[in-house]
Amino acid sequence: MSFKKFANATLQEPTINADDWAKLHGKHVFGQKSASGSSAAARFKQAADTSKYLLSHCTIMASVMVEADPYDYLIKPECSHLVNNNDDAWTNEVLKLSHSSFVGAFNFVEHFQNSKYAKGHILDAILRKINLSGDGGVWVYFCDILVATDLGHEKLINDIRSEKVKYLSMGCVTDLVICSYCGARVTDQNTYCNHLSYQKGMFLADDDGIPRRIAELCGHKSMPQGGVKFVEASWVATPAFPGAAKRNTVAEEWIGPRTKYTKSSTAGKIAKIASEYDEFETLDLGDTLMDADLRGRLIR
Asked: Do residues 7 and 112 lie in contact, with contact meaning Cβ atoms separated by under 8 Å?
């Protein structure tokens, strides 16, 4: 069976343009291998059927660093605060393998996962490497996504702009969870170890007396794409997950491709948009993009 997982993140409103997104995150923008975000957007503007979207930049989640094999289930204490509010976590290796599955995923409200009610989709996903220790020995990835929400959803768009709605929550499925204390591998909730059944979120000392956060590690680096698939990002009313960074609105009216789910409102605006996975290429992110600081600038 598959496990469904959710985690929340914050968004803030200051507006920057598509070129600024390209400067932050390089040439692999909007799922297009182009020299800049503007040229990629220009290509989309030439499409016969188009729609307009609010583009929102959000740091949606963070990974955690674990100890070296064979103890690659023990979360390093410096990363304990990055376990989300549902006591789920993703290792550096798993997030690097799986984050590109965000591209083309749906944008919903409150995880109402029906494509007919999609509000948009995710155009881009990027990783930023963040050092948590002065010597660089402990580090994690923050994952940023670029969300296109159709302007036809006027109330939702107004709520996002006014910050009445300012949180996003990711949804994923995973075929495996691992106990971050004993390393038990679970493929069915009926076979949880005692730690996952009764002690999630607690700290227990390991054999060396080091306090370890008990959480469910989603997937594993040995599995194809880390054993995790990100399927949506929803606008939600719940608080952010710990460690999430506030980000920006990238463009107020970006013109992009329309899908079979899109339809016009009575005011003549394009309404619902939902993604088919062949609409956008899966990103080919180079390792250079993994070495960026909190502002997305490459570190040499």
From this structure: no
Q: Give how many domains the chain has, as a whole number.
A: 1
Domain presence at residue 288? no
In the β-sheet with 216-218, what is the strand arrangement from edge to edge?
Answer: 88-89, 216-218, 177-179, 185-186
- Look up residue 26 and give its amino acid: G
Higher pLDDT, 238 or 289: 238
Domain membership flag for residue 72: yes
Those residues whose C-beta lies under 8 Å from the C-beta of residue 236, and which sit 6 or more positions away, are 8, 109, 110, 111, 167, 168, 169
pLDDT tens digits for 151-200?
888 999 999 888 888 888 888 899 899 999 999 999 887 889 999 999 99
In a domain, 73, yes or no: yes
Residue with tokens 């106990």: 179
What is the domain range of residue 221? Answer: 3-276
pLDDT in tens, 245-254: 446 777 787 7
Cβ–Cβ under 8 Å, residues 230 and 106: no
